[in-house]
Design brief:
Helix content is 34%, strand content 16%. It is of the alpha/beta class. It folds into two domains: 9-145, HAD superfamily/HAD-like (Rossmann fold), CATH 3.40.50; 166-307, Rossmann fold (3-Layer(aba) Sandwich). It has a ten-stranded mixed β-sheet. The termini are far apart.
Length: 308
Amino acid sequence: MDTESPDRLVVAITARAIFDLEDSHALFERDGVRAYADFQRERENEALAPGIAFPLVRKLLALNEDAPADSQRVEVILLSRNSSDTGLRIFNSIEHYQLGIVRAVFTAGEPTDPYIRPFGAQLFLSANPESVRRALEHGVAAATILTSRDGDVGTTRTQSPHHNQLRIAFDGDAVIFGDESERISSEQGLAAFSRNEAELAHQPLSGGPFKGFLAALHRLQQAFPAENSPIRTALVTARSAPAHKRVILTLREWGVRLDEALFLGGRDKGPFLQAFGADIFFDDSQDNIANARLHVAAGHVPHGVSNE
């Protein structure tokens, strides 16, 4: 058994997020379990094509390259609704791509989200929105990863950013922070929001569903030299001055560093995320996700007032 470090970053992710399983998933929905099982067994020695989160997983696991074998910095847990029999193709694909994933759960059609907390995962990524919602309800940072065939992803999107750093970008309100300010904006308008943020500039925002994951990522960053870190983070928010001040002071109060902060004042986020080179971006707004995923991989966080 390896030593479980309290600073280890643990990410739970479903098979459909790592690999392209859309053809076989469509077969399952159309023809049922038996046809799906036959399809996977017949092809179990054919490696699955990489899915939308494959580059992210590869970069996460690369953070272990110079770590002791018994003290890995990052662990990726595979969660799958396949059976262990039909899941053999998934494990064969993991071996084919030399991904360092050794722990997995196969539930034969049952929900996978009950196993997130026992593994101690700080982040859960899935193509199943209901699983993501349940994870959020249980206090785990979670996002719905839209697969490559969930609608048109456009033609400008970069499949894998041209750098070796792991780059993760976050929206602020209802993701890193609570949604109380966003709720004021939604219910009372922009002027009321600006007034509220100016009056409460020195009062820290509450934590949102991704506060714990951001803190875990920050602890992991501290294992590397600041001037040569393999991890880079960014806040990409629709806020602008003067509403930026409360955000900055809140992060200072939490003792969490974000490498970049983009206060866009309502501009489309996608081109800025592409310029940053995000491996993944998390946002609670479906509109922002629709724009972002034209350029980068994106995860929808179904939390807060915009998802009620």
